[in-house]
Automatic annotation (TrEMBL):
Transmembrane feature ranges: 12-29, 49-70, 82-103, 109-127, 134-152, 172-192, 204-225, 231-251
Main location: membrane
Entry keyword annotation includes Transmembrane: yes
Superkingdom of the organism of origin: Bacteria
Topology of the protein relative to the lipid bilayer: Multi-pass membrane protein
GO cellular component: plasma membrane
Keywords: Cell membrane, Membrane, Transmembrane, Transmembrane helix, Transport
Similarity section: Belongs to the 4-toluene sulfonate uptake permease (TSUP) (TC 2.A.102) family.
Protein name: Probable membrane transporter protein
């Protein structure tokens, strides 16, 4: 019995190896800088496998990787403020999941590439919200982040840009972000499961790709403090841009 016997029927060994390579690179970005994994993983992975499959795969492996951080985040977070934003995700995540489940794969890939390109521009702009805290705005940011998470697990930049601009301690902001995504991932798990996106195939594939992703996260974390964060962030931005371009469906004939 070989590893190919455990792979989903539509995933060849070559595709599985490509997903592992993509997972290692995106995991390294997350381990070092704390962001960028989905923005690198989704455009590239959805160009070699079905977007629905790779979105569920990323959700499972990233949820497992982040779960140990939640107890500490619960203790340090501003739970009342986080709960307001989570309300938005409660609506946004199922809506994004619905579009992921009904759209054609190529259409979904175009949307993912567009989303990631827009989110990359947001990161490059250095945007931080400096205005007053309004309930409707918090709910709206949570809804936008939840929608991006439901559609393509790319909900990071809006919520990070919002929380890091608030006049609160960085430790609390980080805890808020972790707690929000813990809740958002739970919503995604339920939404993906009820729509059939979390399947036997995605779970089996997560057992193969997940350890490689974890190695990437550990490798990236080991680089922290040894390399310039500014340089590494620029490398992450470049990788995201490359992922967007190479993941465009219009280039399938030339690149694949």
């Amino acid at each position: 019995m070989s590893i190919t016997d455990f792979l989903p029927k539509d995933v060849s060994l070559t595709i599985a190896m490509a997903l592992c390579a993509i997972a290692f690179v995106s995991g390294t970005a997350r381990g070092f800088s704390g962001f960028g994994s989905a923005l690198i993983f989704m455009p590239l992975a959805s160009s070699v496998a079905a977007p629905r499959l790779v979105a569920a795969l990323l959700l499972v492996i990233d949820f497992v990787a982040a779960a140990p951080l939640l107890p500490d985040a619960w203790r340090k977070a501003d739970r009342k403020a986080t709960a307001v934003i989570v309300l938005g995700a409660l609506v946004g995540v199922p809506l994004g999941t619905y579009f992921l489940s009904v759209l054609e794969p190529v259409t979904t890939r175009w949307i993912i590439s567009g989303f990631v390109a827009a989110l990359l521009l947001l990161l490059l702009s250095g945007w931080r919200y400096r205005g007053k805290d309004h309930v409707w705005l918090s709910v709206g940011i949570g809804g936008l982040s939840g929608f991006c998470s439901g559609l393509a697990q790319t909900g990071g930049p809006p919520i990070v840009g919002y929380w890091l601009g608030r006049p609160i301690a960085p430790l609390v902001a980080r805890a808020n972000i972790l707690l929000f995504f813990g809740a958002s991932d739970c919503f995604s798990m339920v939404s993906y499961a009820t729509t059939g996106l979390i399947s036997r195939e995605s779970l089996v594939l997560s057992l193969i790709v997940g350890p490689v992703y974890a190695l990437g996260v550990a490798f990236g974390a080991s680089l922290f403090g040894r390399a310039s964060e500014t340089v590494f962030r620029r490398i992450c931005y470049m990788l995201i841009a490359i992922a967007v371009v190479t993941g465009l469906p219009v280039l399938d004939r030339a690149l694949r």
